[in-house]
Design brief:
Layout lengths: L1 H9 L1 H19 L35 H31 L1
Length: 97
């Protein structure tokens, strides 16, 4: 495991991949704490607002802040991806042996 990590850190592609994965994990862990608005709060008068100082990524059809929804939803998405990968690996290992 440590040898694989060393080899990845030596190549620019491996280092870039680790940095990207690290940034995604950082957003997943601390992102909801920095969400500027409640991701479920609807504001019909704020529908389809473009990106601005108040809503960095704009709002959706219900007036919900897209950035807040993205930061809160990232945790569930990454967890589901990790579980699906683990399940696929387990099933593949059982079938392949």
């Amino acid at each position: 495991m440590i040898e694989i990590l060393r080899r990845m850190l030596r190549s620019p592609q491996g280092l870039l991949g680790l940095v990207i994965v690290g940034l995604i994990m950082l957003v997943v862990v601390v992102g909801p704490a920095f969400a500027p608005h409640d991701p479920e709060k609807m504001a019909p008068l704020m529908r389809y607002k473009p990106p601005s100082a108040q809503f960095w990524l704009g709002t959706d059809q219900y007036g919900r802040d897209i950035l807040s929804r993205l930061l809160h939803g990232a945790r569930a998405t990454v967890l589901l991806a990790v579980l699906a990968t683990a399940l696929g690996t387990l099933v593949g290992a059982v079938i392949g042996t």
